[in-house]
């Protein structure tokens, strides 16, 4: 970023701190004029409240904002425009803020275009800045450190007394120090001996408290004369650091060949002193040490906290690296179930923002249950429930800008069609009008007509998956019908062209009920996309698992949650992935363990929503792979046609840093412990856990080692869950991280944990990873 642009942004942020009049709009037409402002520390925006008694202004924290959207591209502004409460000329003044994972919205109008421009630009800059900030940034951020002092400074003296500091440790930093340890630390940093810490002294107090003894012990293993170097003076020279990175870490580094981050880069091993010096220059905060080619403990921590040196190989998470030219049915596809819902299956609103949340998380298959609307326009809702409908047109219009923000690869609109012929034609018109050239309206030509096109063939395209409703009884109808006669003479007419009633809309994938009978299965085409419930999946897995895998060679299969899951809970997706099912539709609105596995699966391949299946699930005729053949570890012998190399994963959970609290027990210091679990083929599913550390969520130390023998690494996910032990009630989950085993880097690694709602946190685990071939 140029110096001038930085100066312009700083000027804009200064103006936002002064504040400006914005009009808050609601869907019912109510409006409120308020002076909105940016907090002086740039943590949140708020407004000066009216003169009403007991009125309190709302804070909108930057870290919770998901999107800032300009114009009238929301349900609220759409309704106001429809009712002529606002006018089309006002669109250039409007913007909306979405937060709390798109569940909440704030709709604003400025008095002039320049004011809106400043707010939108300033907020987007702060959001981008926050998303790039990790623990490595905040431990050096004096504003962030002093925010804890402000929290503990009850008398607003801009200093903190000893009792206030001790209480602050428990309330804000999530740790209870032994009395003697606290006294020693406080006295070391209280230079005047007055029992009060100034802001500068508190910053020093924090840095000493946050000092990494675990990293100091590691450095001692690889530096000469380690016993002569204290935690304050220890340094690695270039030779020692090169040895550590090559031998201990087996480290590769990314070199960018394009100014566009994450676009073009090369992955290279660290072999030269020049590369090591560049790392020292980047991570060592002391200029004198940089010039001497030395890396201090602070620099060592900065290096290991950097994303490229974390647990997951950065080239796996930043861009697609799988072969994207294979047929669509060779991939697992990130999919959602009843995407329009934010709540349970029986209540709440149908909301386009639920789609936007899923799409921006990498989801590529979204579902719409379409019914006739009273005004002649189709609606999306969950019929026979209390779910409030939303117009189909509103959903398509408001999700269109986000279709390809997270990934360039195709989006599949899975439409459950319950509409009359007239309103089906409206669905076709809306899709064509809004999506334009993005919508596939004709078959894609491939060298082999029976083979589906690839994700690469379909970049930036939208495909329709729906039922084709025939004008007369046909084979297609018979395949969809629940009461099917498998010997029906019409089955040989499957290849007959069927006219359907979605106007001339091209249905790329024909949705139909799953049939287990061989006489039906053999007639499936690539354009067919059978669905089966989780209950049906269990039944077929018991009776004919290889037959089910073979069907995935022909077409896209979809598994969906049972109807009894009215709380929007999710089935275990591992069961379906093990059998090769491509579309495992999950309830994105539920932040449960099953969604954590979904995020872990699709964090791979650049988060593009498509993950190539292992070869033995693609060429089932050759591999004869049956996941249920591998139940007991002791009896496992892999066929030479199964291209897997069994491995032993050895994990040492060393320590944790800045572990977040439970949302349910904000006044309780965490007693954290870690559960490590592996998820994949049945023989590879294991769970192990550490002991709990009492009253320390700030810097707990475990130093516990666990071993996992994994026979199918390509199918294995590794999940780390941090829990808060509670002797009196259930243990609350605090944070997690999940990733494919094949994407793990070995050596000493930080795990950047996610909150239970998948938001980023400053929390980390520090681990050592070793992977050995069995």
Notes on the structure:
The chain is an alpha+beta fold and 774 residues long. The chain has 5 domains: 3-133, Pleckstrin-homology domain (PH domain)/Phosphotyrosine-binding domain (PTB) (PH-domain like, Roll); 139-210, Recoverin, domain 1, CATH 1.10.238; 241-309, no CATH class; 328-470 and 490-613, TIM Barrel (Alpha-Beta Barrel); 642-773, C2 domain (Immunoglobulin-like, Sandwich). It contains 25 helices and 32 strands. The strands form 7 sheets. The chain has an 11-stranded mixed beta sheet. It is globular. Residues 471-500 have low confidence and may be disordered.
Q: Please, how many domains?
A: 5
Give the N-terminus to C-terminus distance in angstroms: 49 Å
Estimate the strand proportion.
15-25%
Structural class: alpha+beta
Could you list the spans in which at least 5 consecutive residues all have pLDDT below 50? 471-500
CATH class group of the largest domain: Alpha Beta
Core attributes:
Recoverin, domain 1; 7-stranded antiparallel β-sheet; PH-domain like; alpha+beta; single chain; 5 domains; globular; 32 strands; 25 helices; 774 residues; 11-stranded mixed β-sheet
What's the gist of this structure?
This protein has 774 residues and is of the alpha+beta class.
């Amino acid at each position: 970023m140029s110096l001038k642009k930085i100066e312009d942004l700083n000027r804009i942020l200064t103006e936002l701190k002064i504040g400006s009049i914005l009009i808050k709009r609601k869907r019912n037409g109510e409006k409120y004029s308020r002076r909105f402002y940016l907090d002086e520390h740039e943590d949140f925006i708020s407004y000066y409240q009216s003169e009403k008694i007991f009125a309190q202004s709302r804070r909108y924290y930057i870290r919770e904002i998901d999107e800032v959207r300009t114009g009238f591209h929301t349900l609220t502004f759409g309704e106001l425009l429809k009712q002529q409460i606002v006018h089309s000329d006002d669109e250039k003044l409007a913007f909306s803020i979405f937060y709390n994972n798109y569940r909440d919205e704030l709709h604003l109008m400025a008095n002039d275009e320049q004011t809106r421009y400043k707010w939108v630009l300033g907020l987007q800059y702060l959001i981008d800045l926050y998303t790039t900030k990790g623990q490595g940034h905040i431990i050096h951020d004096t504003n962030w450190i002093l925010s804890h002092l402000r929290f503990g400074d009850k008398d607003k003296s801009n200093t903190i007394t000893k009792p206030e500091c001790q209480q602050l440790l428990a309330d804000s930093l999530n740790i209870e120090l032994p009395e003697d340890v606290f006294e020693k630390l406080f006295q070391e940093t209280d230079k005047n001996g007055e029992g009060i810490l100034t802001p500068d002294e508190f910053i020093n107090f924090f840095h000493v408290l946050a000092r990494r003894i675990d990293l100091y012990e590691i450095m001692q293993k690889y530096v000469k004369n380690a016993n002569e170097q204290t935690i304050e003076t220890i340094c690695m020279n270039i030779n020692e650091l090169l040895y550590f990175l090559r031998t201990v870490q087996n480290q590769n580094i990314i070199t960018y060949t394009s100014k566009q981050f994450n676009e073009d880069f090369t992955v290279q091993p660290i072999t030269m002193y020049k590369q090591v010096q560049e790392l020292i220059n980047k991570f060592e905060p002391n200029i004198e040490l940089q010039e001497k080619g030395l890396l201090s403990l602070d620099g060592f921590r900065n290096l290991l906290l950097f994303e490229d040196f974390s647990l997951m190989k950065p080239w796996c998470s930043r861009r697609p690296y799988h072969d994207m030219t294979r047929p669509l049915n060779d991939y697992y596809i990130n999919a959602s179930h009843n995407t329009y819902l934010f709540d349970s299956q029986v209540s709440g609103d149908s909301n386009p923002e639920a789609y936007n949340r899923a799409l921006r998380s990498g989801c590529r298959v979204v579902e719409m249950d379409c019914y006739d609307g009273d005004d002649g326009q189709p609606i999306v809702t969950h019929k026979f429930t209390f779910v409030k409908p939303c117009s189909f047109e509103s959903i398509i219009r408001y999700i269109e800008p986000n279709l390809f923000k997270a990934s360039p690869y195709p989006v599949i609109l899975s439409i459950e069609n319950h509409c009359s012929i007239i309103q089906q034609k409206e669905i076709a018109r809306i899709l064509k009008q809004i999506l334009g050239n993005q919508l596939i309206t004709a078959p894609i030509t491939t060298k082999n007509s029976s083979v589906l096109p690839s994700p690469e063939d379909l970049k930036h395209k939208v495909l329709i998956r729906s039922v084709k409703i025939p004008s007369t009884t046909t084979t297609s109808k018979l395949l969809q019908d629940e009461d099917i006669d498998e010997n029906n003479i019409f089955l040989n007419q499957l290849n007959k062209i069927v006219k359907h009633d979605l106007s001339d809309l091209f249905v790329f994938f024909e949705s139909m009920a799953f049939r287990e009978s061989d006489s039906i299965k053999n007639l499936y085409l690539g354009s067919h996309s059978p669905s089966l419930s989780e209950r049906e999946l269990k039944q077929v897995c018991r009776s004919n698992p290889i037959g089910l895998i073979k069907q995935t060679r022909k077409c896209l299969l979809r598994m969906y949650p049972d109807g009894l899951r009215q709380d929007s809970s999710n089935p275990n997706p591992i069961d379906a992935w093990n059998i090769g099912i491509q579309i495992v539709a999950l309830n994105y609105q539920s932040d449960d363990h099953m969604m954590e596995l979904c995020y872990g699966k699709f964090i791979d391949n650049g988060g593009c929503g498509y993950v190539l299946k292992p070869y033995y699930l693609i060429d089932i005729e050759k591999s004869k792979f049956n996941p249920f053949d591998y139940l007991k570890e002791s009896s496992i012998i892999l066929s030479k046609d199964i291209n897997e190399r069994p491995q032993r994963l050895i994990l040492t959970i060393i320590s944790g840093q800045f572990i977040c609290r439970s949302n349910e027990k904000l006044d309780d210091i965490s007693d954290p412990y870690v559960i490590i679990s592996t998820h994949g083929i049945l023989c590879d599913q294991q769970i192990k856990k550490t002991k709990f550390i009492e009253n320390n969520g700030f810097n707990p130390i475990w130093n516990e080692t666990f071993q996992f023998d994994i026979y199918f690494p390509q199918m294995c996910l590794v999940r780390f869950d941090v829990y808060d032990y509670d002797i009196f009630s259930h243990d609350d989950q605090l944070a997690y991280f999940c990733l494919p085993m094949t994407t793990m880097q070995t050596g000493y690694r930080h795990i950047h944990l996610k909150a239970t709602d998948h938001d980023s946190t400053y929390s980390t685990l520090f681990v050592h990873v070793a992977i050995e071939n069995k």
